[in-house]
Amino acid sequence: MYWLTKTAISSARLYWENKLGFFNVVGVTVPTGVSAFPHEIYQAPQSWAEKAYPKLVYYKKHDVGGHFAAWEQPQLFSEDVRATFRTVRAAT
Fold first, then answer.
1. Three-class SS of residue 18?
2. Distance from CA of residue 1 to its chain's centroid?
3. Which of 1, 51, 62, 84 is the most exposed place for a label (fewest CB within 10 A)?
């Protein structure tokens, strides 16, 4: 698709300019939910998510879905978003 629309270069720019490590997120201090879809570029294991997000309030590993989970599996994705916010609302 990128080649047909001649947007491959601009779509890759984000990755080229980002100097941060892609998977070395640590110390995020806001309540966080993680949905792990099996065909994602990187399916974050729960053990990694717990270390990266000290305030992990929700984690779910799915059997289907990929990088565009909100488009591919909208029902599962929306259920995870709702469950994450439900835990945050209950805590306040």
1. coil
2. 23
3. 1
Q: Which two tokens stand for residue 15?
A: 């990755």
Please state whether the predicted TM-score (pTM) of the whole model is above 0.85.
Answer: no
Are the C-beta atoms of 65 and 72 separated by less than 8 Å? yes
- Report how far residue 35's alpha carbon sits from residue 80's, in angstroms, rounded to the nearest whole number: 7
pLDDT digits (tens, 9 = 90+) for 32-58: 999 999 998 888 899 989 988 889 999
Tell me the C-alpha distance between 5 and 8, whole Å: 8
Distances (CA, A) of 89 to 28, 49, 82, 92: 19, 21, 10, 5
**Cα separation, 43 vs 23, whole angstroms:** 11
